[in-house]
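At this stage, I wrote out one protein, both as residues and as discrete backbone shape codes, and that material follows here.
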Amino acid sequence: MSGSGTGAETGARSARAHALAVLRIRSRALAVALLPAAGAVVLLVGGSTGHLPGGGWDLARRLLVPVAVLVLLAAAGVALVIARARPAMSPTVPVAEDAAPDLYRMVRDLADRLGVPAPSAIALTPDCDSWLEDRTHPAHGRPPPAEEHGDIAGAGRPARVRAAAPVLVIGSPFLWWMRVGELRAVLAPVVAGTGPSAHPDIAAARRFVRGLDAAVAVTSAPGRTAVVRGMLAGVGWVTRLLLRGCRGHAAEMERGVAAAAAERAQAVDYGQRIVAQEQVGLAYAGWDRLLTRVALPAWRMGRWPSRLSAGVVAALTELSRRDRLAEGFASRLGERPACDLLEEPGTMDEATSLLAARLFHGGPAETGPDWSPVHWGDYPEEVVDRKWRTDAARLHRVLDALHVPPAPGAAPSLSRVLTHLTTPAPSPADAEERATDPTRAGAAAAPSALAPGDAGADDEDPTPTTPRSAALAARLSAEVGREEAAAVFGPRGTAPPRDDHALPLFPLQPPRTARELLADHITAMVCCTAMDTVGATPGLDWLDGPTLLLGGGRVTDLSPQVLTLIEDGDPSPLRQWLTRQGIRPEKPVRLV
């Protein structure tokens, strides 16, 4: 305990020392701004009292006074921009105390045990992380009343006014996946950070640095007149200069705060925290798979899963069952989950799920005809089936654009796709005819002509090797790029959150190469054929997303057969698989 206390005190002292260094930079900047005014005052007073007579002093007064006024005006402008600039605030879902009294009680008990101020509020974020966030800026709402405390870096000193406690932001996957004891252990070092964070010097230094950072963002914003841009360019130069001077001390200050918080939390649930850290890594893996494999396909169709946090529990349970990650897994799930600390977990899950869709995909803030929630029970029918049939319809539209002959009966079928991809390459005469036809030339272009934003050919993920599949993949990439660029979910990507400021967008970036797009579309066509000929049904795999259920089992060996068709132009593996399953590729399928 003594060693831990010494380490915490050392970290706090280091943080305070660097905070004072940041404040000294602020004081020096103020002194530089006031220096010409001070000199002008001395010259004016000296002239009025007769102590500085003569033409030289009169000339100095005439030159220095305007300079002093200009410097003061410039300094006032810089200070005004810094004061009015709004520091960035993480988009979160606030948790009122009456909505989670048990959670607030647990956090306050933890703060009391750590001997630090309790966070002023709690909020949820759709991410696998937890942190403290200062929201005392006037634009963030009215801060809680200040309190008094002993100096954080040394006991026995006079009480000082303490800065308002920060807000505790908790990652929603942690709250749903972890047990109560695990969440308490994970939050211990985070809550411990309210101690050094509440020190007036550290709080003032952080406010100054955040103000500079916000001012830089203001001066860099586009859409202003030339005069305003010129004025803000000077303000931006000054704020960047101050920010460069503060950067090193600010970084060391944060390291000191983190060290003090970590040392202080050593004595609280240390053994439990070691076990909980394993669950943190597991939550990261499950959350990433759920977003990219399950949520993203729904978002692209204008649907947002309304229970993402509950979904990550199902995904991680499936992952643990498959890989046998931990012994005694069932006994762990028998303990009380941390989401039980909320009065209405489903409501909070829905709010964080909508925020996740806005953060990672750019959907609007409100539901509507083109942006509606979907429950997990309806996901296979409303998302998976619709996605496959939409992809199959797009594939046939591209084949029509390539002037590929329709299947017998002019109905869309898998045999049309197989016939086109396995037909030998066109003769030189056909190639010459395509060169004179702009439409056909574009259709048969090489995969290098992909739509902007799509991944191109590289050594790690080559494009299809046959001319037919390469041309089809290129056209599909261009078609998907056009559709995604034209997709609008209301005020997509610019929808104002609750505080009337635009959300940052953190797009997920799953593989979207030409070959993978083509493989997805052919697989969708196979799945549609299976559903319409042998009664297969769509399903949801929590780790891999859409899945085909055939004969009561999950289809797992379809992708290799499709890739063989794309890369080698060999349909035999896919045809053999279709024959074994009783699927008839010549049968027409229903499209969206």
About this structure: Residues 143-162, 438-460, 489-501 have pLDDT under 50 and may be disordered. The radius of gyration is 32 Å. DSSP finds 20 helices and eleven strands in the chain. Residues 2-49 form the longest helix (48 residues).
